[in-house]
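Help wanted!
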Amino acid sequence: EVQLVESGGGLVQPGRSLKLSCAASGFTFSDYNMAWVRQAPTKGLEWVASISYGGSNTHYGDSVKGRFTISRDNAKSTLYLQMDSLRSEDTATYYCARPGWERGNYFDYWGQGVMVTVSS
Amino acid sequence: DIQMTQSPASLSASLGETVTIECRASEDIYSNLAWYQQKPGNSPQLLIYDANSLADGVPSRFSGSGSGTQYSLKINSLQSEDVASYFCQQYNNYPFTFGSGTKLEIK
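Answered by r_m:
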């Protein structure tokens, strides 16, 4: 059974950093591109970043480019999101998502989400 | 960036009815479009990919269609468990973008 379990969320002050993790199991993690998608309270979905299966290619949404870094450790089957220079508008539930096929870009498995609150 | 315009923002329909949700892309996305359902308090669930392919385990009353810049999600024989928000997503180009969502309620 595919499982994605996010961790690392919490309350953080504006301008500070936070690192999210997503532990994957039930599939060959190193075969799949992976992504982070977020959802601000009562708002819609926003794609944040994607990373290729080997980790060499990354892509970011305009609102986080230059501040967030997606990475992965295939040996640990774990996806990361390093979030720097956090702003109040980064407050959201962050989901780790796996695509429907190894190189795909639509998402058939999602974690339960982790809440990040940016506030002083 | 590709803008996804989704309509309507909210929808109220009776059990057994057929409803349609639409997404319009700001440029041709070559059927690289997915639809998701999100029930309150839950993570999104994939319904449709490649504009018209039904994801595993999704009831056949859900269907997707469209091409170019115009896409739609149809739900036949509306059931109470279909109460949810629905989102489209284009994955033709980075940055991937979602529609603003449609909240579906039962009348």
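OP: Thanks! One thing I noticed: Chain B has a mean pLDDT of 97.
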